[in-house]
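Work Package 4 report. The design task specified in the project plan requires that, given a folded chain encoded as structure tokens, an amino acid be chosen for each position. We show below one input record used in the internal validation round.
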């Protein structure tokens, strides 16, 4: 089976549309979303509708949760909080109830999908490096776990002797962020898993950054949220 894994879309419709076009060209059997569909970007309702149509297998992200849990916004940075408050005003009750129903964990064909650290995804802890990833190795029993949240694309081998992805050892994989990459590469990021070939690929897709950034400015969201799309930071 070929599975596309998308994460941290953050209401960036231009990035999501470009990634979905690439996924369609690649041909996949399933698209799984690791959450943070909304927050930061200017098209939360449109991105939510697209994810519901194309990736109904979706877990809850902290920015999704902040739509219906205002207390969570208090933990956010100033820019993230301003965007969360704006986002909550853009979504209708039906969209909000879809977000509310999202699970923290999904298990599909033996693969675990979460937004934050797999031990307790509801705590929204980050997994930033190999050592942190290995600290979470015993917190789940599946061979493979996909995480988002940091916006950094990475493949973490849980066995020190293994350096690269293979179809049989244990791994934690972050597909990176579709809508707000922070690993220095501004192109939209997603993951492509082939369970038959035993392969995994991080794909980086060009999209119309100027258009997405222009909409953020037009919506009077914090300017930094537009600038960082060009930087990929
Ligand atoms: Zn995020």
């Amino acid at each position: 089976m070929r599975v596309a894994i998308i994460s941290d879309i953050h209401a960036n419709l231009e990035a999501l549309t470009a990634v979905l076009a690439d996924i369609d060209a690649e041909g996949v059997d399933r698209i799984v979303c690791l959450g943070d569909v909304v927050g930061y970007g200017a098209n939360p309702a449109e991105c939510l509708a697209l994810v519901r149509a194309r990736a109904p297998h979706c877990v809850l992200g902290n920015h999704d949760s902040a739509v219906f849990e205002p207390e969570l916004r208090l933990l956010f940075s100033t820019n993230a909080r301003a965007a969360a408050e704006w986002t909550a005003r853009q979504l209708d009750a039906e969209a909000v109830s879809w977000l509310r129903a999202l699970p923290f964990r999904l298990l599909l064909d033996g693969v675990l999908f979460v937004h934050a650290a797999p031990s307790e995804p509801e705590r929204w802890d980050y997994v930033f490096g190999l050592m942190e990833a290995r600290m979470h190795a015993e917190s789940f029993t599946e061979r493979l776990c996909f995480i988002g949240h940091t916006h950094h694309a990475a493949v973490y081998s849980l066995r020190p002797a293994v350096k690269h992805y293979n179809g049989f050892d244990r791994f934690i994989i972050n597909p990176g962020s579709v809508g707000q990459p922070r690993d220095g590469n501004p192109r939209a990021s997603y993951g492509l898993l082939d369970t038959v070939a035993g392969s995994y690929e991080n794909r980086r897709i060009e999209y119309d950054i100027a258009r997405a950034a222009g909409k953020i400015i037009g919506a009077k969201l914090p300017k930094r949220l537009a600038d960082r799309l060009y930087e990929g930071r």
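Residues 8, 10, 36, 61, 63, 149, 151 surround zinc ion (CB under 6 Å). Validation will be extended to a larger panel in the next phase.
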